[in-house]
Amino acid sequence: MSEKGRILKTVDMSGEQVEIYMTKMMTPCTPEEYQAMSVDEREYAKIQPPLNQRTYMPEDGIICMQDVPVKMRDGVTIYVDIYKPESEGKYPLIISWSFYGKRPFDGQSEWQIMGVPPQTVSNMSKFESPDPGYWCRRGYAVANVDPRGIGHSDGDFVQFGTQDGKDGYDFIEWAAEQSWCNGRTALSGNSCVAMTQWRIASQQPPHLACMAPWESTTDMYRESLCEGGIPAHSFVRLVMKEACGPNYMDSTPDNFEKYPFINCAYWKDKDPMWDKVTIPVYQTACWNHFHLRGSINAFRKCKSRKKWLRVHRNFEWPDAYSNENLEELDKFFARYLKLERNGWELTPKIRIEVQDTDEFNYMTNRPEESFPLKRTEYKKLYLDANDMSMKDKPVNNEASVSYDSETGEVTFDYCFDEDTELTGYMKLRLYVAAESYNDMDLFINIQKLSTDGKFLPVTIFGEPHPGVWGKMRVSRRKLDEKLSTDYCPVQAHTCDEKLEPGEIVPVDIEIAPTSRFWHKGQQIRVQVAGRYIRNDWFEPLMWDTDNKGNHIIYTGGGHESYLQIPVIPPRFQDGDIIIR
Fold first, then answer.
1. Neighbour tally for 37: CB within 10 Å
2. Among 56, 254, 257, 432, which residue's beta carbon has the most beta carbons within 10 A?
3. In sequence order, what DSSP letters do the residues of 398-416 get, joined into one string?
4. Where does the Xaa-Pro dipeptidyl-peptidase C-terminal domain lie (predicted)?
5. Contacts for 363-371 with beta carbons within 8 Å, 24 or more apart?
């Protein structure tokens, strides 16, 4: 989004007055108004149906109460579409809360959700949200909410903050008192819709019975705007264009520039209060998606005693709308929204898919008791720039290797001499220097190679995933001592520590969690570059790199660079019999 419409406003963030940048959202307009606009005007406009408060039947057996006004505690009015079964009764409510329009198909051409066949999801469904066409036929009501500032709802929109949480609280308590509601509500949806759930649950609305955040970024700074300390604005700005309303929205990319360090009120306001989330939670995560870190951290940090995690290799949309997973989610909701005794509690607390190659799994939905796995054995593979390998033992001879920071890359390989499963967190310790500059951006992929050195990616929609990833801007190498562990370093993002040209410094790089199986003779590769190497991978992610000249990696002797891997031993072994 351009500079047009950007203003400074002072807003309340968790009781503190904070000055933030806000930008004009896409202006809602009718199809006729849109057609009358110039090309330049259309860049800032989006077709949005006018308010039309009515009750009608979008499909047989389903009633929609459209554009229902709901007043928040400060007098702001938001609007919601509520779908419910046609028959009279009291129904539990499933809520979709996000800035995606509550009627996405009005005024738009029908579009497909990647990996999901056309007509799988009804036109009543918000993007990445529970489909009323499915849930209303199973005895639930569904609320598609336009939050504060979105669509025709009053006010300005502040993304993923405490205000969103408070408004969610107010809506839930309003809904619980309606004649059609049984007094029990849930939050559901994936990606952006999942992210808001943690902020609302943090406010502890009494009538929120459970939540199902399927794929959820939860640390906006570390996982979205500044992964590894490297700014990433383009994708966020792209998503912001989905927000449509008459007023202004919080511009997180601009506010990242205004508040570049994490220890300030602006970023703290976007952190869920994990100790306040105590309701039942069903969290999913994908090993190959940028929501991975946030999803697993959310499961680990929330204080619910009834929480479940399923980690899979598939992309979020086909996973969310598959028949098998919908039926399982129905059991979860039936247990806590309808109070059915359906055996849900016997569901393993953690299930993981252990990936192999392409679209194949070594294991699917294997039950576990914790994450990371308690039986994990951490092992260091020591980088050796003498022959670009990794070794089981520390390397005595010092060596170095360099690459052009804009176009080059280096790789270090290690061959497994037995079947090996890696599940959990890796970390990469590197000794590095920028030959002629004061900073360097490092992009890491951890990859699997065949016995003859061929790249063996996991594929999604037929596209090769670049590999388990990590990123590091070296001037942001300082770690947060409270958040970091021996197996997972976490950057502090409280200061910049620029380099002197040629200065050698150690960096500990957080690698996203994974689960993958290497057969005997297959190899693991560490790929290091100054840019994100995606090949054919389809996600439109970009980072604003700051590199010049050569990067140098030092290994051996006093520069003990290594990859630490989470080896999972067999649960049972008797001779050649192995049970994993």
1. 14
2. 432
3. -EEEEEETTT-EEEEEEE-
4. 330-564
5. 363/517, 363/580, 365/310, 366/580, 371/296, 371/299, 371/300, 371/309, 371/311, 371/424, 371/513
* 177-192 residue pLDDT tens: 999 999 999 999 999 9
Assess contact for 555 and 382: CB atoms under 8 A.
yes
Confidence label for 4 from pLDDT (cuts 50, 70 and 90): low
Mean pLDDT of 544-553: 97
Distance CA 470, CA 445 (A): 7
**SS3 per-residue string spanning 145-166:** EECCCCCCCCCCECCCCHHHHH
* The dihedral formed by the CA atoms of 513, 515, 519 and 520, expressed in degrees to the nearest 10: 40
User: What single-letter amino acid sits at 14?
Assistant: S
280-307 mean pLDDT: 96
Task: Copy the structure tokens of residue 577.
Answer: 């019999």
84's tokens: 């419910």
Question: What would the two tokens of residue 220 be?
Answer: 């906006």
485 C-beta neighbours (distance < 10 Å), count: 10
Place of tokens 């569901």: 347
* Structure-token match 């008797």, residue found: 574
* Confidence label for 1 from pLDDT (cuts 50, 70 and 90): very low
State yes or no: pLDDT of 2 exceeds 60.
no
Q: Which of 79, 102, 266 has its CA nearest to residue 155?
A: 79
Give the residue ranges of DSSP H helices in 45-180: 132-135, 162-176
CB 479 within 8 A of CB 492: yes
Cβ neighbours around 274 below 10 Å, total = 17
Residues 63 and 52: their CA atoms lie apart, in Å, by 15
Distance CA 141, CA 82 (A): 7
Across the range 63-75, mean pLDDT stands at 98
Cis ω for the linkage preceding 372 (within 30 of 0): yes
Which neighbouring-strand residues pair with 441?
473
Degrees to nearest 5, angle at CA 218 with 358 and 368: 55
CA dist., res. 414 & res. 521, Å (int): 10
* CB distance 224 to 160 below 8 Å: no
Mean per-residue pLDDT for 386-396?
97
Tell me if 546 sits within 8 A of 434, measured CB to CB: no
pTM score: 0.94
Task: Set out the domains of the chain in order of their start, with CATH numbers.
Answer: 7-273 (3.40.50), 377-567 (2.60.120.260)
Give the pLDDT of residue 104. 67
Burial of 505 (0-12, 13-18, 19+ CB in 10 A): middle
Q: What is the pLDDT of residue 176?
A: 98
User: How far is it, in rounded angstroms, from Cα 177 to Cα 183?
Assistant: 7
